[in-house]
Amino acid sequence: MGNRAIIRPINSTMGVYLHWNGGIDSVTAFLKYCELKGYRDFGGEYADGYGIARFCQIVGNFFGGDCSIGLVENVADSDADEIDNGIYIIDGWKIAKRIGNQPPREGYNITEMLCDIDDAQPESERLTREYITAEEVTPSELKVGDKIYYRDHNGKISLETVLGFGAKGQWRNGDVSGLPYIGKYGGNNPADNGNNYLKQNVRKLKEE
Fold first, then answer.
1. For residue 181, what are the β-bridge partners?
2. What is the pTM of this model?
3. Which of 1, 48, 68, 142 could form a disulfide with 63 if both were Cys (CB 3.0 to 4.6 A apart)?
């Protein structure tokens, strides 16, 4: 017995088997955690084997032991009939659809599940509860002095401060007009380094 599921990329017939925590809340949280870490996609146009490997790494750390997760080749839609929660088809890090006759189980709080997953990871690789629970905002919502959690290209997270905004017509590795910038990368003038500009959504430190 278990709470089983298969997690399959949308563009592959190989899947990841979960013996436990195969309900929709747990699966959503595992996927979201990998997305927050900035890992390469699990499924879809930009997917490769690295996304599946990182998913297995995160889930394996969560479970521990040696028999709660595995890889399954040649996964067919009909296999869903034999599995508690069926098959989840993944595009990027999102559930595109679920195949199965039984309703998915569970009822976990996703945020708390994310924090539990984080606690199970090696200390040096954790996101932290503060990061997970921080408000996600668009660059246009930021103002000078806001403190944001910045994830660099190596997946390391640091707390940075918004210092200013790109001038009209300013070009730094692309048009940065009106984009907020931080001071993480080099030099006496952070506005001159294109890597300091925030072009994607970020997580903002809660104001006291």
1. 164, 197
2. 0.89
3. 68
CA angle 141, 147, 120 (to 5 degrees): 105
- CA–chain centroid gap for 109, Å, is 17
What the block records as the tokens of 161 is 């401060």
Buried-exposed string 64-74: b where 16+ CB fall within 10 A, e elsewhere: eeeebbeeeee
In this predicted model, what pLDDT tens digit does every residue of 105-153 receive, in sequence order? 778 999 999 999 999 999 999 999 999 999 999 999 999 999 999 998 8
Tokens representing 156? 């390391």
- Of 78, 48, 62, 76, the closest CA to residue 18 belongs to 62
Structure tokens given for 124? 């040096």
- C-alpha span between 174 and 192 (Å, rounded): 12
Strand order in the sheet with 157-161: 135-137, 202-204, 147-151, 157-161
> Which token pair is 142?
């930021």
